[in-house]
Amino acid sequence: MRCLLFPISLIIRSGCQIKKFFYNMGIFTPNKAPFPVISIGNISFGGSEKTPLAMNLLSFLLKHGLKPALITRGYKGKWEKSGGILSDGENIFGSWEESGDEPFMVAQRIPQAGIFIGKNRSFSCEKAKNLGFDAGVLDDGFQHRRLQRDLDIVLYDPSEKIALREPVSSLKRAHIIFVKKKLDTKSKEKIRERFHQASVLEYSVISKGFYRLKDKTRVPAEYLKGKKILVFCGIARPERFFLLLEAEGIKPHFFLKFSDHHPYPPPSLKKIAEKSQKLHAEALITTEKDAVKIYDSQDFLKIPVYYQKVDLEVEEKFYEKILTFLKI
């Protein structure tokens, strides 16, 4: 499946290289935000844990007295072109259809953070500043050169070599490069040697437990073990979700995969319901990102729906670097 992205990646890479040339030559000038901007991005297509890292960073900034805003395009949301304010840190003003699924998930998980949607990230920063926010976390910002950032964080998986948005050499722009903790030592050293300008840090994806969608109460993994379960998701790397479930001792009887950012129209819900009835499934499990899109439709599925929350466990050095950068 990833191979199918190769022709698209060539077009995007060409565009990135042209933009890079214009910015490096000073022909294009990036816009300066009215507050510090920390960008989180990657050089591959989707599925690199950018959103969990953004949530981790937003929570950390809030804990240290800042008022951070997530600045995001809102991919596939109605506000992607027009722009909109999903959250002012106190209230949620829109739906996942308007903001996109990932921003809405962040708004529900971290209600104190501002969430600003739209392709024009510079305008979003201005709106955020006017509402009293004092730091920006730029989602998927590594290729968005139009907005100047003060710190560039990139999640990098060296096994991704076919479908890349930019060549690996572009990591020379990064200040912090995150790699998975389980990556072999030799590969980590190669990255450190090649991109010595950056701090190369490690992270792990960890489960934060399972939650019943109907009332959002946490249930122990033991409660789900041994049940006949149908799992479904619409994410870029469904195999990673499957491995996380396995690590918790959950063994699905069937796995339905949909495309990334799948909106779950009635035919998809019908497919899930019919398959679960055929299997005599006792429960459905999905991701937190998918859960926000089926909350209003869960009764149609007839059996209980649960979702798994995940987080990133990062090195303490990361937080030290953020504090130093912000001079806190």
List the helices and strands and how they pair.
Elements: H1 6-24, E1 37-42, H2 50-63, E2 68-72, H3 79-82, E3 84-88, H4 96-99, H5 101-109, E4 114-117, H6 121-130, E5 135-139, E6 151-155, E7 176-180, H7 185-194, E8 199-212, E9 218-219, H8 221-224, E10 229-233, H9 238-247, E11 254-257, H10 266-279, E12 283-287, H11 288-294, E13 305-314, H12 316-326
Parallel strand pairs: 1-5, 1-6, 2-4, 2-5, 6-7, 7-8, 10-11, 10-12, 12-13
Antiparallel strand pairs: 3-4, 8-9, 8-13
Question: Could you explain how this protein is built, in words?
Answer:
The protein has 328 residues and is an alpha/beta fold. It folds into 2 domains: 2-205 and 313-326, Rossmann fold, CATH 3.40.50; 206-311, Rossmann fold (3-Layer(aba) Sandwich), CATH 3.40.50. Helices cover 35% and strands 23% of the residues. It has 12 helices and 13 strands. A hairpin with a 5-residue loop joins strand 8 (199-212) and strand 9. The radius of gyration is 20 Å and the shape is globular. It starts with 5 loop residues before the first helix and ends with a helix.
